Amino acid sequence: MSTLNASDLSLDQAHDAVHAALDQAKAIDTKMNIAVVDAGGHLKTFFRMDGAWLGSIDIAIKKARTARLFDMPTGEIGKLSQPGGPLYNIEHSNGGLISFPGGIPIKLGGEVVGAIGVSGSSVENDHAVAKAGADAVS
């Protein structure tokens, strides 16, 4: 019989990701919704900056979940999901996915332990803020 040793994101690590993402959002003067999911893709923590778009709440959560379910940045999924691509229409699976930038897996020692999703600005800003959050976890 084989044993599965799965790692997960701690609450402190999730908070580290959110706070680094908040700092990056403030540095680029934008208002964001920031979601962090655990290894199972379930919401671990969420911050909505004052004035961030209400419509971006669900998008941030879905970006984080999408990044975790497929263990790749959502922007990469977007490239693969274009018409004629191998993942075309994937955003209609799993209760709705997001296939544009702003979701990034969080890794520890090369193992995915969760993901962060950010929404509230351009996809370039969303990705930069998410990357700051993901990079802060150690």
What does this structure look like?
It is a single chain. The chain is α+β, with helices and mostly antiparallel strands and 138 residues long. It has a single domain (11-135), classed as Haem-degrading domain (Beta-Lactamase), CATH 3.30.450. Helix content is 38%, strand content 19%. It is built from four helices and four strands. The chain has helices spanning 11-27, 56-70, 74-80, 123-135; strands at residues 33-37, 43-48, 103-108, 111-119. It has a four-stranded antiparallel β-sheet with strand order 2-1-4-3. Helix 1 packs across helix 4. It is globular, with a radius of gyration of 14 Å. It starts with 10 loop residues before the first helix and ends with a helix. The mean pLDDT is 94.
Task: Give me the secondary-structure topology.
Blueprint: H1 11-27, E1 33-37, E2 43-48, H2 56-70, H3 74-80, E3 103-108, E4 111-119, H4 123-135
Antiparallel strand pairs: 1-2, 1-4, 3-4
Number of strands: 4
CATH architect. name:
2-Layer Sandwich
Count every helix, treating DSSP H or I runs of 4 or more residues as helices: 4
Instruction: Estimate nothing, just give the exact number of structural domains.
Output: 1
Strand numbers in spatial order across the main sheet: 2-1-4-3
Q: What is the share of helical residues?
A: 25-40%
Low-confidence stretches: none
Choose one word for the global shape: globular
CA distance, first residue to last residue: 31 Å
Structural class: alpha+beta
Strand content: 15-25%
> Superfamily at the CATH H level?
Haem-degrading domain
Q: Give a short account of the largest sheet.
A: 4 strands, antiparallel
CATH topology: Beta-Lactamase
The average pLDDT value, as a whole number, equals 94
Order of helices and strands: HEEHHEEH
CATH class: Alpha Beta
Task: Output the radius of gyration.
Answer: 14 Å
